[in-house]
Structures are given as C-alpha cells and as structure tokens.
Amino acid sequence: MLSFISKKSNSIASNTRNFLRHSTSSQALKPTEEVNSSNNKPKDGRKSYAEFRHIYPEFLPDPKIEFRNSIREKLERSDMIARRTLIDIPEFYVGTIMAVTVSDKHTPGKPLRFVGICIKREGCGLRSTFILRNVVDHQGVEVMYELYDPTIQKIEVLRLEKRLDDELLYLRDSLSEFSTFDSNMEAEILAEGTPVPVNPIKVQLKPRPWLERWERKNLKGVEKIDLPEKFFKRAAELAKPYEKYDLMKQYMGTIPEEEQNEIFAEIQSQLHKLEVTRKKMKRKRTFVKPTKLA
Amino acid sequence: MLMNSGILNGSRSVSNGLKYFHTSSCCREIQKMTKLRVVDNSEIGKRAMAEGKPPKCIHVYNKTGIGKIGDKVLVAIKGEKKKGILVGLKQNQKTKVPKFDSNNLVLIDESGTPVGTRIHVPIPTILRTILKEKTQSKGADYTKILAIASKFV
C-alpha cells in the first residue's frame, strides 16, 4: 500500500494529466468502471467483481457517509446470503418482466402472484426494494416489494431485459399498452453467457398533465414529446450538463472500487455456490424429457 | 384570455372558457373536494362517469380527514349525497399493498350493501382485513363489497 502511494506521488504530474483528460472526454467518467485490472480478476472463470456490481447492486452499502456502519453492513450481507440460500433471487434489472409470488396474510393459504415490469429498483442491504407495474383490467396497478421479504415465496424472471433508462416511472404517464403484460406469460429462457438484451422500445406519453415534468428528465425511452417550445427552453435552462464532470459528487455518490472489491471478495465464494445450484436447476428446467412416439 | 392563461399557468389548460383548479392531484390525498372514480356498475355511478362529472368527496369518516384505503367517504354525485368505500388509491402505499393509477370508489348504501353488482377493477386483498375490522356486529356490514369484486391483487 505504501509503495503504491509513493509511486503515485512520483507520477503525480502525469496522473493529473490523465485525470483531466478523462474528465473532459465525452463519456461520463465513473471511478468504479475500470475494475478489470489483472489483480482483481477472480480465478477459475468466475464472474469478475465488475459484473457483480450490476447483478447484485444491493450488496453495496449506501455511500452516504452518515449511514455507514461496517459491522451492520457485514451482518446484513450475511443475512442476505442466508436468505438467498433459501429462495432463488434471480438477476434482474429495471425493465425486466417479473412475477412475484407472496404468501398473503389477508388470504390465508392462497399465495398471490403478481406479474409486471420492474420500473424502479432502489435501496441497499436488507431494505432494497423494487416496484412492479402492470395494467390489469384497464387499471394501472403498481406493487412495491422488498427483495429480502420473508413472505416472498418465489421470484421469477419472465423476460430478462434492460431498457434505455435507469427508471421507468414515466410508464405511469404513458399509454397503457406499454405497461400491459399478460399474467399467464411464460418465462423466456436466455442462452447461457449471452449479454442482457436492451429493449430499445420508445414509449408514447399521454398528453399533459403529468406526474412529473418528463421533458426535463432527458429520457431516452420516450418518443418525441409534443409540447410548445417554451417547455424545452426552460428544460435547457435548468439542465446541468456539467454535472458529469463533478468528480467529487461522483466520488461521494459511489462506493470506491477498492471497497467494492473487498465486499465482493468476502461474499464471492457463497455467491458462486448459489450460481452453480441455479445453473443446475436451469438445466433441469430446459431439459425436456423425450416422449415415446408411436 | 391573456389574464386567464397567466393565472392558470400551473393548473390545467383553459378549455372553452371553463377553468378548474386541481388542488388534490399533486398531494394525491383523499380529502374534501377530491374527485374520485366510481368502479362498480351502479346506474348512478356509471352515468356520472360517462357524463364526465365524477363524484367529489365531501366528507371522510375518520378523525384525520384524510381518506386512506378502506375508509368510508361521503360523495356528491349527480346532485345527490351518497356514501362509498375507497378501494384503491393513487397515493404511495406500504410494501405489498398495490397502488393504483386512479382513486377508486365503490358506492354503498346505509347498511353497507353495495349499490352495484360488480366491480370491474382489481381490489387489494388488504381490504379483506380492513373491512372486516370496520364491520361491527350491529352496524353496517362492509364485507359485502368483497363478494362483488372480480379480481384481487
């Protein structure tokens, strides 16, 4: 560690130059993006920590400094692993179509199943939640679930995909056909090792009034918004295009790479074990027993 | 017209000279003057919704004055006063309790019997518990609403 620091101080001039070049490049700089250095790669073909960050985002603690508590975080992680050994919590993203089965105390003995598109995923640790949305009988319905809720019996991923935006809250103000999903949908099985497909669909918004001012949000998954010129003028006034160069904000809003590696190194073997069992189950599901033909 | 559009900048657009302010759409709470949506097939409710004159809440029967899921409200519908039960809200709910895109209402009469015979939107299952708790042995029986529901979420 010390040697690393001294090396850094030796080449501080070149580093700053690098820094500046990064920050002025067109793509947004994420300090946690360049994880794939040689010493971080786990052995025997396991997933790298960079992938873990997207698949298991709730294992990373809240970067807010006043919420940090390393012991609590560690205990929470072990609880999360314990829960994951009991039920299969699959990989999913915002935009994925999922089905959640919960045991409902209001209707004893009859589990409730809800199918919908994941429009938001937030929180970390045991408090991480996601919101599913669907249109049932021409009525938009949303249900928020906690990922580690003990009443959840099953979480199924029916169609694994991503959308162009990080949050799909604009589906509330879009036409109902874009958030309608059949409750009897069958799970689509993706081939092993394929990257998660991104659905480039553009939804059409209803006319105003809206719940939020979507023209200011710089949404990619929305068709051209039909509004008078003054709305876009105001949106341009309030836009903060310089924010992506704010390194300090990015640093405070993310967990540093070294810490991420530490966290994932701690739980990696357990996660790997869970993945192996899941793959086994998946193979069992995809294998169709050949029937005898006459 | 100029003055109108200046005043109504924050509210809805001005259409054929009619101006109406929405005070409840932002906070999404059920309080007095909130417009609701009738979701059963009662004659009066169907006509009110078809004419585009949805009922307005004029009283909430609880101590806070803010209507929550399963609360009884008094509504003004087509010049009449009717009672109803809130069966789905726009407001953010607790986990596992569904949140709807509209504020749904089922009309009932004095004894708690629903006016219509069918509810054509899904109903949250938490109402089973809430309505059972609200039903007193000698008072109105609200659980009859559950019998006419078509779907639970």
TrEMBL record, chain A:
Keyword Repeat in the entry? The reply is no
Q: Where is the composition biased (Polar residues)?
A: 16-40
Q: Identify the keywords attached in UniProt to this record, alphabetized.
A: Ribonucleoprotein, Ribosomal protein
UniProt-recorded name of the protein: Large ribosomal subunit protein bL19m
CC terms in the record's Gene Ontology section: ribosome
Pfam families, A to Z: Ribosomal_L19
Spell out the family assignment given in the record's similarity comment: Belongs to the bacterial ribosomal protein bL19 family.
Show the segment(s) annotated as Disordered.
16-47
Query: Which InterPro entries does UniProt cross-reference here?
Result: Ribosomal_bL19, Ribosomal_bL19_sf, Translation_prot_SH3-like_sf
Q: Which organism is it from?
A: Nicrophorus vespilloides (Boreal carrion beetle)
UniProtKB/TrEMBL annotation, chain B:
Which SUPFAM superfamilies has this protein been placed in? Ribosomal protein L14
Q: Does the keyword ATP-binding apply?
A: no
Q: Which domain of life is it from?
A: Eukaryota
Provide GO CC annotations from the record.
Answer: ribosome
Its principal location?
mitochondrion
Enumerate the UniProt keywords alphabetically.
Answer: Mitochondrion, Ribonucleoprotein, Ribosomal protein, Transit peptide
Subcellular location(s): the record lists:
Mitochondrion
Alphabetized Pfam families for the sequence: Ribosomal_L14 (PF00238)
Q: Does the keyword DNA damage apply?
A: no
Q: Which family does it belong to?
A: Belongs to the universal ribosomal protein uL14 family.
Alphabetical list of HAMAP family matching this protein: Ribosomal_uL14 (MF_01367)
Which protein, by its recorded name, is this? Large ribosomal subunit protein uL14m
Q: Which organism is it from?
A: Nicrophorus vespilloides
**UniProt gene name:** LOC108569486
